[in-house]
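User: Design a sequence. Structure:
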């Protein structure tokens, strides 16, 4: 079967309980990007662990870059190997356990420069394991729901992840970070009230990923030994690259996604910086803004899940990209915090759907025998040029001495991705 053929029916009928367990994995693992990558530990590392903020920011950037390179290299290879062996849950279990372990060990990273390298290595390993685990998790999607319900399952899972990450963040802030006297005798001088959020995120991940392994069906094993699976998986991946013309639909989609995900990732990376520099928002206001944006993104992912199944994943992505441009363009010219809030919150409604519908579209167009390999390439498309969006943003902002000019490049990436996606044919629609 080629990439142009219609997607198959699910391999194993999944009960509602099994689908809920699959979504709970997203609820659990989202504690890592929310608490560690975005809000708490990243700020702690750059401000308290590293020698100074500039050094910490640079080190954190290098850690993300190294992790991104590892993800880009390993994801397609491991995906192809998993397709040969058949089962996906053992791979999810392996990389989830690695992420949980490395996240928990971040507790030992004290607010001293001597711990910076140790913390950075642990973070890079955890981030790599998290993203590779998602390759196999995403590849389960087409086997759990029929094609006419893929959008709902993907969107609801994505929305569950947004709210799960926020729930863990809220617990961490309310119980540990914000109280003047932390519980359990935690020492504020040693930043234990902040460091404890890493074990909390690890425990949250471990607790809520368990139902997936207990209740969600997996693809059957193909009875191939590890050595043969590696050999045949690598061979299949090489054959895929050599015969790329057979996969024109997938190649076009991955190029489009590469462009608009670069725009989205740049928006995530510089949204807070833009809010602070252009609109004069304080750290507390930026934190509130980030939480509010996650809420609207989760609501958007859940609501647009129906549109994905009714109108198709491609159209849903295009509608989401159009919404990002419609609400993003005025943010380049308006003044004042009120207008920023009025425009930025609706903007968040379109972030989740662009990501969730991308996952379901890949599930619809990937050949059944190569799903995990294709989701590995899906991960590659989100990483291979991850440096490009931030680099263009930075260069443009410096050239025009304007954050607004830099932010305009985000809309260019999003529009370019939509233009490439426009001509794609979504089979079965």
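Assistant: Done.
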């Amino acid at each position: 079967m080629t990439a142009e053929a219609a997607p198959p029916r699910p391999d194993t009928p999944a009960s509602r309980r099994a689908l809920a367990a699959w979504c709970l994995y997203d609820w659990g693992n989202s504690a890592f990007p929310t608490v560690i990558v975005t809000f708490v530990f990243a700020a702690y590392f750059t401000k308290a662990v590293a020698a100074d903020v500039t050094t910490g920011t640079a080190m954190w950037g290098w850690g993300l870059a190294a992790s991104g390179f590892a993800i880009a290299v390993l994801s397609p290879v491991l995906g192809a190997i998993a397709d040969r062996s058949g089962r996906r849950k053992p791979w999810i279990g392996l990389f989830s356990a690695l992420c949980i372990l490395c996240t928990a060990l971040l507790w030992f990273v004290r607010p001293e420069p001597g711990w910076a390298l140790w913390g950075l290595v642990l973070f890079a390993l955890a981030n790599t394991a998290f993203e590779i685990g998602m390759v196999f998790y995403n590849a389960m999607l087409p086997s759990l729901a029929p094609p006419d319900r893929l959008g709902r399952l993907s969107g609801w899972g994505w929305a569950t992840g947004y709210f799960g990450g926020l729930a863990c963040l809220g617990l961490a802030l309310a119980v540990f970070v914000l109280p003047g006297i932390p519980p359990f005798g935690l020492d504020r001088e040693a930043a234990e009230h902040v460091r404890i959020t890493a074990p909390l995120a690890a425990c949250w991940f471990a607790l809520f990923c368990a139902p997936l392994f207990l209740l969600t069906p997996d693809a059957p094993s193909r009875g191939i030994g590890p050595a043969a699976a590696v050999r045949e998986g690598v061979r299949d991946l090489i054959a895929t690259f050599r015969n790329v013309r057979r996969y024109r639909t997938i190649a076009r989609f991955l190029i489009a996604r590469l462009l608009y995900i670069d725009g989205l990732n740049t928006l995530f990376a510089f949204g807070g910086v833009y809010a602070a520099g252009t609109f004069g928002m304080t750290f507390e206001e930026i934190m509130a803004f980030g939480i509010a944006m996650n809420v609207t993104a989760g609501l958007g992912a859940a609501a647009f899940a129906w549109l994905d199944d009714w109108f198709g994943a491609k159209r849903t992505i295009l509608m989401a990209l159009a919404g990002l441009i419609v609400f993003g363009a005025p943010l380049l010219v308006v003044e004042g915090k009120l207008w920023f809030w009025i425009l930025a919150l609706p903007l968040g409604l379109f972030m989740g759907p662009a990501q969730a519908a991308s996952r379901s579209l890949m599930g619809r167009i990937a050949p059944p025998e190569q799903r995990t390999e294709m989701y590995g390439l899906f991960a590659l498309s989100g990483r291979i040029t991850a440096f490009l969006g931030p680099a263009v943003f930075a260069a443009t902002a410096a050239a025009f001495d304007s954050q607004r000019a830099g932010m305009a490049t985000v809309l260019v990436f999003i529009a370019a991705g939509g233009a490439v996606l426009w001509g794609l044919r979504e089979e079965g629609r």
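Confidence is low (pLDDT under 50) at residues 1-12. The chain is about 75% helix and 0% strand.
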